[in-house]
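Objective 1.3, modelling of assemblies. Example input:
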Amino acid sequence: GAVVSQHPSRVICKSGTSVKIECRSLDFQATTMFWYRQFPKKSLMLMATSNEGSKATYEQGVEKDKFLINHASLTLSTLTVTSAHPEDSSFYICSARDLAGQLNEKLFFGSGTQLSVL
Amino acid sequence: LAKTTQPISMDSYEGQEVNITCSHNNIATNDYITWYQQFPSQGPRFIIQGYKTKVTNEVASLFIPADRKSSTLSLPRVSLSDTAVYYCLSWDSGGGADGLTFGKGTHLIIQP
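Predicted structure (tokens):
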């Protein structure tokens, strides 16, 4: 099936620094990608929808200036956590939609990025 | 808000069949039912998807009654490695650009 590659898998940074997470669709083009955040023992929470060539759509309560999303190509979306603070520590997961694929599965997830802000 | 409701947790034993039921009373005409499995510190993994009646693949079966207000994921002969969180989702997988809204999922624990 289709593969979504997410990097890095784990990052530790100091408070106040910015962290960029990449999400790539390896064998299909994704006009839409989604970013989720997951806290320990909690469910995935949709943060934003990333649209290729246009501005991302953020869910209510998610700061767009804090979580910058860029979807400059059909295979790459990036999430930048700006001026990270300890409360931003979480597991971030991206997903990409393959509407053109023939498989029953249409949404593919990355392996996630564990962000720890010291 | 999530459009589905499922048990928070379930326990079973190796070799048993496990059935996890999900309620989606307000399912839309274009919505499909999709189940994902998630292990700790990993992204969700697709298990199965269906619209109605029964769907079977190499890992699971999905039963959806005619009214589509509920569905049941059936895992045959589970093993310890099936311990995970299972999410049931109702969404328009064929169109729209809406992201999936995850509910709380079912934490399945398989014991020896």
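The radius of gyration of chain A is 14 Å.
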